[in-house]
């Protein structure tokens, strides 16, 4: 029998509509504890809508999304925040809070309305900053640090919530390649060292392939396939969903699949016959 220890997120026949438009159709998934999942697929395939249903920022139909074996429609916002944290796509913060202030916001589900942070809250925030390599930024204003540093601070805030589940919506889309890799390595490390279950919407297929334990491929509101990177990232699946020709090889360092786009000119050159004059 499936237990909440092994499957902190379960989805059963989830559907979702915006008005008359069907966005998600019969989604069923079981997300295992302590693994890094990426959700990939073309624009408009329903990736972010699925993530928002799990987070309950879009309220799903009853008995379709379960977090730690509890129907999310029966959980209020504070109880949801004690079970899962969310790293949004847009992390711009205009107010000049310090990094420590931002990370301590992750403790708000555990602090009463007129209560202050305790020494335990401060200790948890410190551990979260150390785990995300942001402790040295603790006294800086959030508006003074780089985009990559700010993204790690938001992950630290999510980590300070002390939940077993972290949802991320395109966390690297606005970062340069160095900060993308740094953040992906941070998330991957957290799944291994703290047994956090991470579920992230991703656009970069190569980053998803290199850092994910499992990949969920979506198209037109449905799950096309799911499995390990080698099981999902195939030339057939890329052609079927993205309508692109590709060449896939194993990364010589990691052994994970690496995707290269094959243009029409590349195909013509490959199959052309030399003309002798």
Secondary-structure map:
Blueprint: E1 9-18, E2 21-31, E3 36-40, H1 47-55, E4 65-67, E5 70-71, H2 77-81, E6 84-87, H3 99-104, H4 119-131, H5 147-160, E7 165-169, H6 177-193, E8 197-201, H7 205-211, E9 214-219, E10 222-227, H8 229-232, H9 235-242, E11 246-250, E12 257-261, H10 264-271
Parallel strand pairs: 3-8, 3-9, 6-7, 7-8
Antiparallel strand pairs: 1-2, 1-4, 4-5, 9-10, 11-12
Describe this structure in a few short sentences.
With 277 residues, the protein is of the alpha/beta class.
Describe the structure.
With 277 residues, the protein is α/β, with parallel strands linked by helices. Helix content is 33%, strand content 24%. It is built from 10 helices and 12 strands. It has a 6-stranded mixed β-sheet, sandwiched between helices. The protein has a 4-stranded antiparallel β-sheet with strand order 2-1-4-5, covered by helices on one side. β1 and β2 (21-31) form a beta hairpin. α4 (119-131) crosses α5 and α5 (147-160) packs parallel to α6 (177-193). The termini are far apart. The model is unreliable at 1-5 and 268-277 (pLDDT under 50).
* Helix residue percentage: 25-40%
Helix-strand topology string = EEEHEEHEHHHEHEHEEHHEEH
Please report the number of helical segments.
10
List low-confidence stretches: 1-5, 268-277
**Structure class:** alpha/beta
Strand content: 15-25%
Average of pLDDT: 90
Q: What would you report as the Rg, rounded to the nearest angstrom? A: 21 Å
Q: Could you give the distance between the termini?
A: 72 Å
Oligomer: single chain
User: If strands are numbered along the chain, what order do they take across the biggest sheet?
Assistant: 6-7-8-3-9-10
Give me the count of strands: 12
Shape: globular
Give the biggest sheet.
6 strands, mixed
């Amino acid at each position: 029998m499936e237990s909440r220890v092994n499957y902190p997120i379960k989805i059963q026949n989830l559907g979702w509509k915006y008005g008359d438009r069907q966005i998600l159709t019969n989604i069923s998934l079981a997300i295992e504890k302590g693994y890094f999942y990426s959700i990939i697929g073309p624009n408009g395939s329903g990736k972010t809508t699925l993530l928002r249903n799990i987070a309950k920022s879009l309220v799903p139909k009853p008995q379709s999304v379960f977090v730690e074996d509890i129907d999310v429609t029966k959980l209020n916002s504070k109880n949801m925040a004690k079970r899962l944290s969310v790293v949004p796509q847009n992390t711009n913060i205009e107010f000049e809070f310090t990094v420590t202030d931002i990370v301590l916001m992750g403790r708000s589900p555990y602090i009463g309305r007129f209560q202050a942070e305790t020494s335990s809250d401060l200790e948890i925030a410190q551990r979260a900053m150390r785990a995300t390599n942001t402790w040295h930024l603790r006294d800086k204003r959030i508006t003074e640090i780089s985009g990559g540093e700010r993204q790690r601070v938001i992950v630290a805030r999510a980590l300070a919530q002390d939940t077993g589940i972290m949802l991320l919506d395109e966390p690297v889309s606005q970062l340069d390649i160095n900060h993308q890799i740094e953040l992906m390595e941070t998330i991957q490390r957290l799944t291994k060292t703290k047994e956090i279950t991470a579920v992230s919407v991703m656009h970069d297929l190569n980053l998803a392939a290199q850092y994910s334990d499992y990949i969920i491929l979506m198209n037109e509101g449905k799950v096309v396939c799911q499995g390990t990177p080698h099981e999902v990232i195939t030339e057939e699946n890329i052609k079927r969903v993205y309508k692109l020709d590709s060449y896939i090889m194993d990364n010589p360092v990691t052994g994970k699949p690496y995707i290269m786009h094959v243009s029409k000119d590349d195909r013509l050159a490959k199959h052309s016959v030399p003309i002798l004059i």
